[in-house]
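Cross-check.
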Amino acid sequence: MNLVLPVKKVRALVTWASVAACKTPWGSWLPQRMEAWKQTGVEYSENGRTKQQMPLYYQLYQDFVNNADRLSIERAIKKVDMPLLICHGTN
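Predicted model, tokenized:
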């Protein structure tokens, strides 16, 4: 589903502590774990807050790889054609 914003009404964009890139759980996985994930179709990642083991289905990885350009935050922000304020910091 594509979200279509009423562009004429949006005159500026502000972000507050937004993410700059998608950090995936599998970004640090060893090749053996990636292969096991592909074979079984599911791996688990611990939710840092609840400690639940959250299922990650292999098709999530496939979607991520197949749509990397479309889902790129850096690429999308370069297309913004209006005033942009990015608020971010450590204090």
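The chain is about 25% helix and 20% strand. The first strand starts at residue 13 and ends at 16. Passed to J.P. for a second look.
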